[in-house]
Queue: 2 jobs
Job 1
Amino acid sequence: MIGAVKPTIVENTMKNDVILQVQDLSIVYQTPRGDVMATTDVSFDLRKGETMALIGESGSGKTTLSLSFIRMLPNSARVTKGKILYSRDGVTRDILEMSDNEIRRFRWSDCAMVFQGAQNAFNPVLRVRQQFADTAAAHGKTDKAWIKQRTLELFKLVRLDPERVYEAYPHEMSGGMRQRSLLALGVLLDPQIVILDEPTTALDILTQRAIIDVLKEMQQRLNFSIIFISHDLALAAEMASRVATVYAGEIVEEGSVEDIFYRHRHPYTLGLIRSVPRLSRQQDELMSIPGEPPNLITPPSGCKFHPRCMFASDKCKVDPPPLVEYEPGHRAACWHTDKVAAARIAFAAQD
Ligand SMILES: Nc1ncnc2c1ncn2[C@@H]1O[C@H](COP(=O)(O)OP(=O)(O)OP(=O)(O)O)[C@@H](O)[C@H]1O
Ligand SMILES: [Mg+2]
């Protein structure tokens, strides 16, 4: 058992139902070519039981951000600014200030993460049950009867045949079965937060569907919060109650699913949504976002999106737009939100 630790408690300034509060977080990767600014001034709240989706192109900084929540960033990464406050049972701590012992307990017991492409995360030479027992033991839970009962219960919850999977080796299971087992392992110690980084990317569409259904059911039963990272906007819309659009390491828009999909105010969100094919849309109406994501060692001045933005003005090249709240809970960082809104309405009229 990991020894008792004195938690690094901080004053709770968060609203009642907020369990994770990211404040002005900045992260760089130190490389021989210079610092990669992978996360810049990110702030957001995660509430109890909600699902927050992070959407954005490859390289926008989604994985970096979520790795920081469990302090699993690679050695070359430095948090240069900010706080990550975490609250449970009336006690609030800064994850970045936790001791090594505290953070070890925090992982799995408070916050679990299923990584990108994690279907192969199981050790191939150990039976699945052993990997559940090892995880429990690493967190001081050694009661064999409890572990077995909890493991079987979770297999049932993720709709696996409990007895069969309990004795199985990972190679005896399909990709979808392994992904379900991983979800079960993720919630073994009843975490408050589960981070899912592209949880279904490697799976075929029917298996994806089944995993999403299982996830929803698990969340209803166990009431954890989810941070859901996906390239797939339809999946994000289905899973999440709130969505944050990430561009070049910044949150450029955040709001409810309806805000983001039907009332977006940021041109990057507009671009992401317009670039998704729809049955009702002609191929030539599909709009891809021109250009490439920026180099994060020397990002563009002003608004980082301006070189790719159809609404950019001289001001955008110089002044970074602040993240402004337009409706309660709906924030966007753009100098031309009115033009984006007009374009969105014009596009919707064509659909
Ligand atoms: N270990 C590293 N060293 C240097 N730069 C890194 C490292 N890991 C990520 N980066 C850079 O940090 C930025 C953010 O990367 P990150 O992996 O967080 O993006 P992502 O949104 O998760 O992308 P994807 O959708 O492809 O998974 C990118 O510019 C990436 O090249
Ligand atoms: Mg990633």
Note: The pocket of magnesium ion (ligand 2) is lined by residues 62-63, 116, 197 (CB under 6 Å).
Job 2
Amino acid sequence: MKSASEKPFALFFVSRADDCRYHRGMNTPANNALAVKQYAADAGFDAARITTPDAPAHTTHTKAWLDAGMNAEMGWLETRAELRGGRADDERLLAGARSVVVLAASYASRESASQEAGARGTVARYARAAEDYHTVIREMLNALAGRIEAGFPGAKCRGFVDSGPLRERELAARAGIGWQGKHTNLISLDLGNFFFLAALLTTLELAPDTDPAANHCGTCTRCLAACPTGALIAPMTLDARRCVSYLTIEHRGAIALHLREGIGDKVFGCDDCLAACPWNERARAGQNARLAAQPNAGRPDLLQLLSDTATEEGFRARFRGTPLLRPKREGMRRNACIALGNVGGTDALALLQTVVETDPSEVVRESATWAIAKIAAR
Ligand code: SF4
Ligand code: SF4
């Protein structure tokens, strides 16, 4: 579950002479779409499909989900649901918008398991790169917008990554990037489910892709079975209040006692439902090395994590430029204590006791007390 807190960003670019072979001839919407897809590949995206700015089908399921409070404290999801993503909204986001380019950037990469000793936490795969994916994808969107605006004088573009009011997932499904699996995320036959979505609104008329991907979940229920906290309460229904990804990243304050064991060693996010999906087995790796995992970034030493975050300066120095700043220092230390309670040994007791005695946060102190009791009980 990625942050959706940031605002849409404006795209700035430098015009340059265009050398595209596609639109030297006829500027038909079909030719334009071909050109834009090539530009997207050149910018580093692994897939690009086109759709119109018409509102994606708005299901009663979404309203019922929000009404039941399953978006937890993520109020921006209600705001996003109110914005239908239709022409009126797109007109407000970009005057004259005629097409939406939906883009996928894979972060799937081959990682060797950490062999280092000591209690280790787990960080979600999307956050293991050296840079925040928002930064990387914004640059890719800027490059794509620059090519379009230089190649098609008068065309205007505006890009969004996990941050704007566009409902990228529904738009991507309609454009044929993939289908929405029972774990609620999009799956592509080519890319599996470890990829970011982004969208570029443009005033350029592009021929839309009108062949949405078929749903290949069939009778499979692996993702539901893999969820450690029972957050996937039914196919396509995620109760964020129980989801480890939400709890470790977005939730502020103490984590409910009955959910702590299910968190296991996770200190930032959760991949269990995504990793269980069999459509990852033949997925190709992404082409952008800046989104690939850094060695051992997914398995931090928990005692080191607690030591490094003993001060706000230490926390910022360790996670600067990465999505791991999102839970803030209190949330990350709370998570590290709970993970130690679940997987730590007696060598963690002294540091946890120091946390109990010195940490300014009651949430962190209580989590450390809980961890000490759990370790002692083992
Ligand atoms: S497997 Fe993890 S990320 Fe998926 S729904 Fe369950 S807790 Fe959330
Ligand atoms: S694990 Fe199975 S049910 Fe879940 S999303 Fe993947 S294919 Fe669909």
Note: The longest helix spans residues 133-151.
